[in-house]
Specification:
By secondary structure, the chain is mainly α. It is 45% helix and 7% strand. The chain is built from seven helices and three strands; from the N terminus they run H-H-E-H-E-H-E-H-H-H. The protein has helices spanning 8-12, 28-42, 72-89, 110-126, 135-139, 142-145, 156-170; strands at 47-50, 92-96, 130-132. The chain has a three-stranded parallel sheet, sandwiched between helices. Strand 1 (47-50), helix 3 (72-89) and strand 2 (92-96) form a beta-alpha-beta unit. Helix 2 packs parallel to helix 3 (72-89). The longest helix is centred in the middle third of the chain and has 18 residues, at 72-89. The two termini are 25 Å apart.
C-alpha cells in the first residue's frame, strides 16, 4: 500500500484496532462490490474512514474528449450508496476528500477533482457523515506533497501530513 494508510495504525496507537483492505479501493463501484467481501472484517467497527475519487475522476484514459472515468451523476449515486452501507456497519463514518494531483499529470484534472469534492461533500454531510478535508492541505503545495515521479501519489511528506490528519479525525480532534 502507498500513501497514508500504513502510517495511521502507529499514529493511533494501541487504543485502536485498524483494518484496511490489502488492495487499493480504486473506483467507487469497485469499493461498493468490495464491501460484500470486506463486510466481515469491518462488522462492528466503531469508525470507518474512507475515500474514493482519484480513479473515478481520471480523464484522458480513452479517446473520449477527456471525460472522467466515472461520470459525476454515477459517482455521486454510488458514493451515497457506499456511505449508506457503511452507516449500517459503523456509527461514525468519515469521508476523506480526494487529494489533488500535480498540474502536469495527464490522467487527472484538478478542476474535475475539486468539482466532484464540491458536489459530494454537502450530500454526505446531509446524511450524517463527517468530512476529513485532505484536499485543502495537499493542494496548498502539491509539489511538496505529491510525488514528482508519478504526479498522483502522496510523497513521504504528503503521506505523513495526511496520516496525521486522518488520525486526528478518527480521534475526533478536528
Amino acid at each position: 500500500m502507498v500513501g497514508y494508510g500504513p502510517l495511521v495504525p502507529d499514529l493511533l496507537g494501541s487504543e485502536y484496532s485498524v483494518w484496511q483492505p490489502e488492495d487499493n479501493c480504486r473506483f467507487v463501484k469497485y469499493t461498493l462490490r468490495g464491501l460484500f467481501e470486506w463486510r466481515a472484517e469491518i462488522e462492528g467497527a466503531d469508525i470507518i474512514h474512507w475515500n474514493n475519487g482519484l480513479w473515478d475522476t481520471s480523464t484522458g484514459l480513452f479517446d473520449d474528449g477527456g471525460k472522467p472515468f466515472t461520470d459525476e451523476e454515477e459517482y455521486v449515486k454510488n458514493m451515497l450508496r457506499v456511505a449508506s452501507e457503511l452507516k449500517k456497519i459503523a456509527p461514525r463514518v468519515i469521508f476523506a476528500t480526494t487529494t489533488p494531483v500535480r498540474p502536469d499529470y495527464v490522467y487527472n484534472n484538478n478542476a474535475v477533482i475539486e468539482r466532484y469534492n464540491q458536489v459530494l461533500v454537502p450530500l454526505l454531510r446531509e446524511i450524517g457523515l463527517e468530512i476529513n478535508d485532505l484536499h485543502t492541505p495537499v493542494a496548498a503545495d502539491v509539489y511538496r506533497y505529491i510525488r514528482e515521479t508519478d504526479k498522483i501519489h502522496l510523497s513521504e511528506e504528503g503521506a505523513r501530513l495526511c496520516a496525521e490528519q486522518v488520525a486526528r479525525a478518527i480521534r475526533g480532534e478536528g
